[in-house]
């Protein structure tokens, strides 16, 4: 992959089943690893559907890309493939660098922990060292505009407060690729503008 390319999808297909279980998804992924390079049948069984079909995509360093489409068109699936939350049924997904996904609001937060404790937990999950979190914690709190609530358990936060904290942690983490899936829809306009500037 060229040094300026951070994401490349080559003939990517992603099949889901309406009756899916973790066991079936794992079995499909493992089978795909052993059959890599061989074209598997592209037919669908009962209850299966294509979330993505034969997708080719290249994103270069420094590009800002927005995905538009109706519900069910595969936008979230594409983001989950980039962040290795799920795997392609067929094809190759190559990502060069560290990914900071903010795909589901508050994912990874512990509801009983306060804002500072969740900053430490999420920051380390996203690749920050404890030293880095200590150095950045005040910047994260200030950007999130949660100074008065930072010692309150996250379960008492509004969805907008959770969004602000999650976004602030992610944007202060060392990443080459940042993924956002509709999370800014719950924030107020002033915070959305602040995020766009950052």
Description of the molecule:
With 198 residues, the chain is of the alpha+beta class. It has 2 domains: 5-96, P-loop containing nucleotide triphosphate hydrolases (Rossmann fold), CATH 3.40.50.300; 102-197, Rossmann fold (3-Layer(aba) Sandwich), CATH 3.40.50. The protein is built from 6 helices and 5 strands; from the N terminus they run E-H-E-H-E-E-H-H-H-E-H. It has helices spanning 22-34, 75-82, 115-125, 130-144, 159-171, 189-197; strands at residues 5-17, 48-60, 90-95, 99-102, 177-180. The longest helix is centred in the last third of the chain and has 15 residues, at 130-144.
Alpha plus pi helix count = 6
* CATH evolutionary superfamily of the largest domain: P-loop containing nucleotide triphosphate hydrolases
Percentage of residues in strands: 15-25%
Level-2 CATH architecture of the largest domain? 3-Layer(aba) Sandwich
Summarize the biggest pleated sheet: 3 strands, antiparallel
Say what the CATH topology of the largest domain is: Rossmann fold
Number of domains: 2
- Radius of gyration (Å): 19 Å
Distance between the termini: 28 Å
Stretches where pLDDT falls below 50 for ≥5 residues? Answer: none
How would you spell out the order of helices and strands?
EHEHEEHHHEH
Features:
Rossmann fold; 2 domains; single chain; 6 helices; 3-stranded antiparallel beta sheet; alpha+beta; 198 residues
